[in-house]
Amino acid sequence: MKKGGLKQKETMTVYHTVDVDLGARSYPIHIGEGLIEALGALMPFDMAERNIYVLTDTNVEKQHARSVCEGLKSLGPRKVSMLAVPAGEGSKALAVLEGILKWLLEEGVDRKSVLFAVGGGVVGDL
Question: Which bin fits 96, alpha (ψ -120 to 50), beta or left (φ > 0)?
C-alpha cells in the first residue's frame, strides 16, 4: 500500500493507494478522508466536456453518492446524471441491468462518457 497526499486549498488530503494488479486491466483504489473533494486530482484524464454517469444503490445514494455527484460537477463535465437502483441482492438481475443500459442510452451515453460505480456489492456486480 502506497501513501499519498493532495494539497486542497488550505488543507492536505491524506490517502492510501492500493494497486489492483490485473495486467492490462489494473487500477488503483484510493482510501482516505476528503477524497470526494480531491476527485479532479485523482482522475487519470480530464473530465471537462464529458458526460458523467453515477450508478449507486438506494442505501449509498443518501450517504455518499450525492456528494460524489457534486464533486464531479466541479470538474466541468457536460453533465452529471445519477441512477440509484434498489439496494439488495434482488437488484442483481438481468432486468435491472437492462434498465441501467436503457437509462444510459436515454441520457446520451457516448464513447467519451465515464461511468462511476459508487458503492459495492450490487453496484459493483452490475
Answer: alpha
